[in-house]
Design the sequence.
């Protein structure tokens, strides 16, 4: 029987979930580059040594923040709509209208964390780019199914439509950070859905 691993040092004396939530808000508000270790430890209410011991370095903490964000309502609403709505039209309608509400929620920083936390660091920038591009792939897959099932015309291009709806979402995130209201973003969502390719009767 293997011997249980013994963790050295004193265990954390802070609320890890609360500290992670504070780090999330800070990265969301300021972006990766502009958020310093000093800013993080101050917001999280811990010392630098505790941050490094519990989370690793700044990059490791940021990775954990992104993973936790993906499991939160603000991060998983796209996948929830894809899973729960019976049609592609209903899924995209829900995604855009939910985005209008979530991106302007006064309880969280404006916009979407994946769009807001831009970084000059090359590795982080590539990491964030790949996460954002995952939406295009997910959208394309759903739209391809919609085309195969006759929900959208056979002539529709799922990849171009996926890129379009991703661009709308990212633009809505930036508009929210620039002060757009939920009503304004709802109007944008309405206009975007008007571009949905309809099949002929």
Sequence:
């Amino acid at each position: 029987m293997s011997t249980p691993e013994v963790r050295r040092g004193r265990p954390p004396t802070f609320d890890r979930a609360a500290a992670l939530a504070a780090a999330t808000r800070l990265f969301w508000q300021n972006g990766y580059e502009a958020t310093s270790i000093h800013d993080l430890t101050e917001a999280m209410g811990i010392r630098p040594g505790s941050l490094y011991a519990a989370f690793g370095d700044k990059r490791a903490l940021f990775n954990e923040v992104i993973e936790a964000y993906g499991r939160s309502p603000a991060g998983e609403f796209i996948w929830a709509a894809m899973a729960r709505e019976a049609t592609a039209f209903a899924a995209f309608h829900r995604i855009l209208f939910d985005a209008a509400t979530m991106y302007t929620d006064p309880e969280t920083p404006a916009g979407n964390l994946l769009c807001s936390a831009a970084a000059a660091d090359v590795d982080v920038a590539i990491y964030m780019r790949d996460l954002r591009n995952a939406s295009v792939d997910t959208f394309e897959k759903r739209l391809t199914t919609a085309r195969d099932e006759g929900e959208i015309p056979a002539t529709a291009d799922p990849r171009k439509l996926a890129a379009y709806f991703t661009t709308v979402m990212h633009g809505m995130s930036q508009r929210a950070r620039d002060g757009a209201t939920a009503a304004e973003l709802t109007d944008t969502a309405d206009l975007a859905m008007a571009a949905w390719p309809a099949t002929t009767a």
About this structure: The domain at 72-193 is CATH 1.10.357.10 (Tetracycline Repressor; domain 2). The chain is about 65% helix and 0% strand. The two ends are 69 Å apart (CA to CA). The chain has two domains: 16-70, 72-193.
